[in-house]
Every structure is written in C-alpha cells, then in structure tokens.
Amino acid sequence: MTANTKNSILIVGGGLIGLSIAYEFARNDFKVSVLSKNRSESAGFVAAGMLATHAEGLEHELLKFGQQSQRLIPEWIKNIEQDSGIECGLRKCGIVVPFTNMKDLRKFPTYKYGKYLSQKDLKNEISGINSIWKHGLVFEEDGQIDNRRRLMRALERACSLHGVQFQEGSEVKDLTIEKNKIIGAKVLNATGEIKDLRCEKAILCSGAWSKAVLNKIPVFPVKGQMLSIQGPSNFLKRVLFGPDTYLVPRDDGLIIVGATVEKDSKFNQGNTPNGIKQLQKGIWSLLPEAMNWPQMEHWWGFRPCTPDFKPIIGKSDIENLFLATGHYRNGVLFSAITSDIIFKFIQDKTLSDSEISFLEKFSLKRFEI
Ligand SMILES: Cc1cc2nc3c(=O)[nH]c(=O)nc-3n(C[C@H](O)[C@H](O)[C@H](O)COP(=O)(O)OP(=O)(O)OC[C@H]3O[C@@H](n4cnc5c(N)ncnc54)[C@H](O)[C@@H]3O)c2cc1C
Known about the structure:
The protein is an alpha/beta fold. 29% of the residues lie in helices and 27% in strands. It has helices at residues 16-26, 60-84, 102-107, 119-125, 147-161, 210-213, 273-286, 331-346, 353-361, and strands spanning 8-12, 31-36, 50-51, 95-99, 115-117, 135-139, 143-144, 165-168, 171-178, 181-188, 194-198, 201-204, 220-230, 239-241, 246-249, 254-258, 295-305, 312-315, 321-325. It has an eight-stranded mixed β-sheet with strand order 5-6-4-14-15-16-13-17. The radius of gyration is 21 Å and the shape is globular. The two termini are 38 Å apart. The site of flavin-adenine dinucleotide has 46 residues, from helix 1, strand 2, strand 9, helix 6 and strand 13.
C-alpha cells in the first residue's frame, strides 16, 4: 500500500476506536487503511456495551466527555445503521445503581443526576433484586449498545462500504520516522513477511497494546472477565450496576455479566476459576434467582488503562502521528466523541471551547510534566 495522496490516513488498530475513526474519515472521502494485529482480541468485542456516564460515577472532564458523547451517539448510530444496514441495539434503557445505605448513595459522585429509589421502588424496578440493597439511583439517560454482536460488525461493514482497506493479521512492529515526521511503518503481515508501508498521516488506536507501538505511551492492560446467562425475555428492563458486578440485559433475554478488574494481569489469556467464581458471587449479590439461569459463554479482554484513568487523544510529539487510546472502562461510551474530535482536529476544523479543553486535558503531554 502506498498512501501517497494528501487525504490518506493509516489507522493502527482495528478495534472500536480505530473503526470509529476510520468510519468518520472514510465517510468524508478520505482514503483509509486499517492495520489490525488481531481483530478478535479487540476490547470492542469484549465490552458490555454500557453507556454509563452517570452509573460509572464519572467526574470532572470525564463526566463532561461522557455526557457530550452520549448526546452524539443517537445520530452517530443512525448513520452507522443506515450505512451498514445493521441495527446496533442502542437502548436508552436506564441504569439502576443499588446501595446498602444512604451514606454511600449520597457520596456517589453523580448522585444529583439520578432519581432516588426506595427499597420498594427498587423492587418494582428490578423484580427479585437481593434484599441487601435498601436504596437506589436510576440514571434514565444511561443505556447500552450491543457492541459485541452488532456495533463492531456494523462499523466494519460501513467502513468497508465506504472503501476502507482492512489488513487483518498485520502488526505494526515499528514506526518509520524521518526528521521527526511519520512517513510509514514496518508491518509484519499475516503471511509472516515484514513490509514497509508508507503513509501521510497515522492514528495510533492500538488499545491496551499501544505501548508496544510507541514506548512513551503509558497505557497498560487491565484484564476483565465476563460471562453471559440466558434469562427470560424482558425480565430485566434496565441495566443493574452493582459495586463489583453488573447485569446488562439485551433485548433477547441474554444478560451480560461483568466484569473482573485485574490490574496486575498483564496480557494473561483466558478465564480463570477465581474470575468465574467472582462473577457468580456478583450475580447472587444482585439477583439471586439468576444463579439458576444457564451460563452461555465466558470470555475476557484487556481494557487500555492509563495512570490517571483518562484517555490519550490528540497530537503525539511526532509530526502527523495522532493518538486515540487509553479509553479504559468507557471506550464504547467515548467512541462517538473521540472520532468526532480527532476528525475535526486533524482536519483543522473549528473546535468548540469544550473540545479544545478535552484535547488539553487528554493530551500525552500531561504525563511529561
Ligand atoms: C471486560 C470489559 C468490559 C467493558 N465494558 C465496557 C462498557 O460496558 N462500556 C464502555 O464504554 N466500555 C467498556 N469497556 C471498554 C472498551 O471496550 C474499551 O475502552 C475500548 O474497546 C477500547 O477500544 P480500542 O480501539 O482502544 O481498543 P481495542 O478495542 O482493544 O482495539 C485495539 C486493537 O488494536 C490492535 N493492535 C494492537 N497493537 C497493534 C499493532 N501493533 N498493529 C496493528 N494492530 C494492533 C489489537 O489487535 C486490537 O484489535 C470494557 C472493556 C472490557 C475489557
């Protein structure tokens, strides 16, 4: 591939963020190539798909970032659905956060955005909820999207219909830099050859593996194990988000149960007996009768985490190399705003004050001070 036209973009990583950005550029007539080391390891195929700005208790700029992304998501998804012909399962179903006592509820960072639920209201909202929960908050603006089965595939299809060139099994081993400007990459392809690719501009979207591409990016993996259970259709109408475990009901009764948070996991593959036990204990603590529902699938993946849990978005110190990584627990939620801002930024389009502020707060520079 020689990407020698002015409007060509090389994307390193075909996960959720890489695909979202590829889609934005491709639908605006750019020539886009996506290099993907391994599609199936992408956290985009792992996540629960919650759009949980408020239920996650985000604060400060992350809260604003999430709220702004949530405003963009309906239109963004409508476009992806139209272009791909695949319905993505976006539902503003609301998320219920239960508490054992009022003190914890009042301390919850996004408390003021929720509607208070007494224990009786909680039981009305979530039939069968464990009686340890005495109070709750429902965040009606929050919701979910079916990322694993639909959004990822819809993005791939929409991208490819807009002409994006995918290269699966292609790992960037090194970036080719001349006079502090990116001019290409050395890529190990699926047939085992190392190829020199040229590019005009590149965007690093390599998720938890970003440090291997550019060592100064302080991203590390935080493993999460998940499972799904098959419940009765429409039994759970809202997401139930406990302190250690959450239950995310899809519209066909499949319930996604997540997730362990394993900070020292490195890239250790696979589900573990302890991980599954922890999820089962979590199911019991939220909805005891769901312990009897059949388990359908177990899986795991790696969240791209940074030292301050905030993403890294914008410039690198190499000319024409841009960064969109480190989205940690909220990459599904943040994908719409990330692709929007990166597109405008690279295109030198006018940015709003809040977008400029996000780029400052999420710049790589903050780790160099
Ligand atoms: C258990 C779990 C639950 C989650 N739940 C939610 C949720 O409910 N809501 C939410 O908003 N977020 C959630 N997330 C977070 C979300 O999944 C991530 O933030 C998001 O997927 C990150 O997207 P990404 O594109 O940066 O990384 P990924 O989706 O992981 O994609 C990175 C891709 O880059 C490729 N790559 C890496 N190195 C190279 C290289 N050198 N060359 C070429 N390609 C390369 C990889 O193979 C991979 O496919 C969850 C994550 C996990 C693990």
